[in-house]
Design brief:
- This protein is mostly helical and about 70 residues long.
- The protein is built from 4 helices and no strands.
- The relative contact order is 0.17.
- The radius of gyration is 12 Å and the shape is globular.
């Protein structure tokens, strides 16, 4: 799903970020921690691109990354 959204130029940053964070959590659950953290960090970057973005998703990712020992 993330690869499809990443390949589609018409997909907004927030939609891409949502897919990336969902994939990150799935990867973490499958034991793929390094890839999960990388996807979560990409998701955070995509959410942060929108200056009017709701901060809740960014805060959620930050909390998740902190639990992973990354923030």
């Amino acid at each position: 799903a993330v690869a499809i959204r990443d390949a589609d130029a018409d997909v907004g940053a927030n939609d891409r970020a949502e897919a990336q964070f969902l994939a990150a959590r799935a990867r973490a659950g499958a034991g793929e921690r390094a890839r999960a953290v990388a996807l979560a960090e990409l998701a955070r970057e995509n959410y942060a691109r929108d200056p009017n973005a709701n901060q809740a998703p960014i805060e959620k990712i930050d909390a998740w990354l902190k639990r992973q020992g990354k923030r």
